[in-house]
Description:
- By secondary structure, the chain is an alpha/beta fold.
- The protein contains twelve helices and eight strands.
- An eight-stranded mixed sheet has the order 1-2-4-3-5-6-7-8, with helices on both faces.
- Strand 1 and strand 2 form a beta hairpin.
Amino acid sequence: MTKTGLKLKTASLRGLKTAWFDNENAGKPIVFLLHGYPDTPDAWSDQVEAFSHDFHLILPYGRGVGPSSAPERQRRYGAYSILLDHLEIMRLTDASERTPLHVVGHDIGGMHAWLLASHPHPRLRTVSILNSAHPKQYLRRVFWPRQVVKSWYVGAFQLPFVPEAAIWFFHKQLLAAVAKEGWKPPHHEQSLKDFEGSAVNAMNEYRQFARDIPHFLRDHAGPVEAPVLVISSEDDSYLEAPSTTEFSDLARSVTVRVIKGKHWLHREQPERINRLLGDFWKAHP
């Protein structure tokens, strides 16, 4: 066990080692916490501390991050491939598939949360999206000039070799830049291998996102039935704040909260975010 009461678990999913943390609070409602880029599950440390007593917490590692193996094939970084990983982790965690489930995602983890919620789950109670966008919502924003400017890094990640070189040679400067947006380093000292997983390997998710655009456009999944809470920042350097009209065909019930802050709100203002999440879950047990 770690000092936070989390246990590292692993399984081979379709030939790849896949890791997640589990507080093993069986019988309690499940909270599935999906981290963003360039994070690890440690990004949810404030939420783990706040909710570990009353909830069964599951925190998957992103593909190629930490103990989760990096695939040889680019497609295994794809959103739909990662969706299969998440569904399998959920099955391994609660084979009964009856325990109430709350899904939370930040950044690219929010995109994965949207996809997970788009597939019918009778036990799904809520979806909470922090500083993120639905894939279709994001694609519509190609007509938003300010969003295009803020998404410069998605285009930069499509270049071969250049982003990797920039991360390796300027990683201190890059981490200092994201720290200004509310990012915090892991509580433990990151090794070069950890950094390679959280920053370099995970970059391939953005590369595969571009290749998956035709699949997103052809995805005819209906609106999310579970209530959705969207939390966004006024001063997010990577994402424009949303309006409720953006979600008319994506979810049946959406609550949008725009807060003064930056991209890593759950790290920058953990007490406020925890209160919003906790109240939302209590309203939809």
